[in-house]
Amino acid sequence: LYFYLLGNGNLSASNPAGLEMAVKHIQTFSLVVYCVIIVVGTVGNGLVIYVTGFKMKKTVNTVWFLNLALADFLFTAFLVFTAVSLSQQHHWPFGQFMCKLNNFVSLVNMFASVFFLAAISLDRCVSIWVVVWAQNKRTVRKAQVISAAIWLAAATCSTPYAYFRTVEVSKNETNCRYPSTMTGNKPWTLCIFRFVMGFLIPFLAIFFSYVAIWIRARRMQRMRKRRCHRIIFSIIFAFFICWLPFHVLSFIELKINHYPDLGSTVHVAGPLTVSLAFMNSCLNPILYVFMCDEFQKKLKQSIWLVLENALAEDHLSFVTSSRSLSRIPRKSDSTAPAEGKETETSMILKSNKE
What we know:
Elements: H1 4-8, H2 17-55, H3 60-77, H4 79-87, H5 95-129, H6 131-137, H7 140-164, E1 166-170, E2 173-177, H8 186-217, H9 222-253, H10 262-289, H11 293-310, H12 313-327, H13 331-353
Antiparallel strand pairs: 1-2
Helix pairs in contact: 2-3, 2-4, 2-10, 2-11, 3-5, 3-7, 3-10, 5-6, 5-7, 5-8, 8-9, 9-10
């Protein structure tokens, strides 16, 4: 997504052999990270989609989590194309249409994921500070409308990037990137717009929302307050660490023409910052959903049901029969209390007669 890795070029021939070797190792490491993100992100977000969409009661929170998980799920699923391209030294074998589609879908889900994080933060802040208003006006229907508006805004923000993306062939290599003829203010405009809409505004919304939540949470019980502080710190820290290096390096890359020495920094740090940004899609279900007690309960119930259905009928019948047999009272157990009662009754009668 930044201009080098999915954008404007490869290593130049003037780079020293040591740098090329370092970049090669980093790309291999990034490829491994991509594979882990694809597996963990699709499985984790898929579980969130399954539980929030089919097992939990539809509420405002489940609407947010379902759409957030859907955005992260699509983001990690389409990461397969980027991983394949990276494994072939940024060669793009999927054609012009998939070049634009992959860029569009990836950016749509990047913007949507960030926007939903901001929406969840603002909704939590309002629910804590304006309790009565939230109980009366905070409805599932409004959350669905806002979610549709977020998806529309994400698609609108992503359209210019997909429009400029193209496939170029140079030195027997096919790359999906921004055209080399795109100069002037266009790269700066795209980069600044992505930073403002994809990081600065959402981060400020998340930061101030959780600061307000933290202030409100100080009145709660001590144990609950500690857990709230840990969750709030984890959310802000994860968002900041995952996305800030990505955007900083994007601005650094635009200065390569004026400062050629920055090229080595971009080539080495670029794949690492992108891996960090992609990793946020794996952390979202853990930070926002898996910490929820109700979600954990529903997830355990669903997993147990799947395991029961996976067992063979013979095994189930065996387990059922063994359980039923264990519940049948033994003759000695049933007669012993009766004998004790008869003995006790006879003793009482004797005492009455005397």
